[in-house]
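README, section 4: Worked example with a bound small molecule

Sections 1 through 3 covered apo chains. Here we extend the same pipeline to holo records, where the ligand is supplied as SMILES alongside the sequence. The molecule in this example is flavin mononucleotide. Nothing else about the input changes; the structure line simply encodes the ligand pose together with the chain.
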Amino acid sequence: MKTRITEMFGIEHPIIQGGMHYVGFAEMAAAVSNAGGLGIITGLTQGTPEKLANEIARCKDMTDKPFGVNLTFLPTVNAPDYPGLVKAIIDGGVKAVETAGNNPAQVLPYFKDAGVKVIHKCTSVRHSLKAQSIGCDAVSVDGFECGGHPGEDDIPNMILLPRAADELDIPFVASGGMADARSLVASLAMGAEGMNMGTRFIATQEAPVHENVKKAIVAASELDTRLVMRPLRNTERVMTNDAVERLLEKERKLGDDLKFENIIEEVAGVYPRIMTEGDMDAGAWSCGMVAGLINDIPTCKELIDGIMAEAEVLIRQRLAGFLDA
Ligand SMILES: Cc1cc2nc3c(=O)[nH]c(=O)nc-3n(C[C@H](O)[C@H](O)[C@H](O)COP(=O)(O)O)c2cc1C
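The generated complex, written as structure tokens:
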């Protein structure tokens, strides 16, 4: 399948693995890229330019295919060394960057000069248009279904994708709730030129996370995610667990008085305990509603090959069949 996204990133299939904290290590990115998609290393999980440079080098040892790095701009107490991280990406020869969280205008000129393609993740048409206007090459349109930060507008992809298609000139991928060939074909029908998956890629053989995380995703239904931190306007969709229910109880009790300090125990620094140690009740971890569509733990190649083969059947037989009949 050839789209403006496959052409832009030099990949075989229009499937991207979104940056994921404590999941997007070199092993994850290389597995997706080796399977013909675009794997992405999560820059902030590495934290320092030196560690990111090392992770990029490790990924290059594992794949000859293109891969990217995610740079997330989120409200943090101690801001990471963004200029250093940008330099590590460029010096490492990476040609694709996924930005997210905030306007990437400050880093764009460096990437443009180095010939790095930037895909910005947005949760609204307004932010997608902004990304286009400042010179981003593509956008990843992240609907309300998504795992992680869906923004505050709550527009699901059935509306958001066609709205983005109506307004944008640059290509975009559909993100949030994407799991299989049906997701891909529907996204293409709505104007996207590929799809981005987060949660689905965690439940794969190669995802470098504890088995408990993969099992939790397979066991979960579409009813098992919650929105936390809405009162702080930093909404995050997470898998429910004891810590999340405790956090939500605090939000109900404190109402408008809620401060980040009140929930620090449930959200700060919990990712290594969950993703690495498999302590599933340690705190709030991002997970999409799409968990309800995930019932197996394939290799990345099995997953992507399966999606592409089934997408062809859907398009050539099911869809074309309606017309031929
Ligand atoms: C565990 C987890 C961690 C994530 N961490 C990040 C992150 O650090 N930066 C980012 O831009 N997006 C992050 N995301 C969002 C994903 O890149 C992607 O946009 C999202 O998962 C898409 O929705 P889906 O889970 O329904 O596929 C994370 C998602 C998950 C599930």
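What to look for in the output: The mean pLDDT is 97. The chain has two domains: 4-209+310-324, 211-289.

Section 5 describes how to batch many such records.
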